[in-house]
Amino acid sequence: MNAATSTPTQADDSVLRQLMNHAQLISQIRQDIDALAHEATDTVAGLIARLEDIESQSTTPGSAPTSWCWRSIGSNAADELWHLLTDWINWIRGRYPLARKIPPCWADHPELVEELTALWLAWQHAYEDRNAPLTAAADWHDRWLPGVLYRLEHGAFALDCANDHHPRPAAAYASPEPNGVAERTREGDSAHAD
């Protein structure tokens, strides 16, 4: 009986070890599958979010044009960009007390149009771009807004238009603005209203 009893016990131990090894492998495979499922879910969610962004940008009326260069932008896109920029400037002038340094006649100064377009672009990147770093808004407040406001009061772009519009002499500009930007700025857009 001892020989018969010891043989099944050794076989039982061997089978038990194999079962334990298989159980560990199955457990590891389950963990791997769970990790892959989470990864796949995150990837799909990210792709869906990107597709929704693309779809909303292409179907949202008033979404910003893809070109930001006044020099090379087409007239339809320039009109749309002008409208969006004007709305944003009106908003920022009311939102930030320091932004009151942006004179109501900003649209009559092509260099301000360029500066404010760049500031708006940086703002959009900071606040509306899903892939912007978490510090982008702080960078905008710390670097971009103060930089523009400083240039409006000091140096070559300094203006004395706080109370009244003071146009720069025509000789200050080398040539007319392309694509009607100068004409658009002189048409008296709604940006002149406080």
Report on this model:
The protein has 194 residues and is mainly alpha-helical. The chain has helices at 2-59, 75-95, 110-128, 136-153, 181-186. The radius of gyration is 32 Å and the shape is rod-shaped. It starts with a helix and ends in an 8-residue tail after the last helix.
Summed up:
63% of the residues lie in helices and 0% in strands. It has 194 residues and is mostly helical.
Pattern of helices and strands = HHHHH
- How would you describe the oligomerization state of the chains in this entry? single chain
Distance between the termini: 105 Å
Which strand-content bin applies to the residues? Answer: under 5%
State the shape: rod-shaped
Instruction: Please count the helical segments.
Output: 5
Unreliable residue stretches = 188-194
Helix content: 55-70%
Whole-number total of structural domains? 2
Characteristics:
194 residues; 2 domains; rod-shaped; mainly alpha; single chain; disordered C terminus
Blueprint (SSEs and pairs):
Layout: H1 2-59, H2 75-95, H3 110-128, H4 136-153, H5 181-186
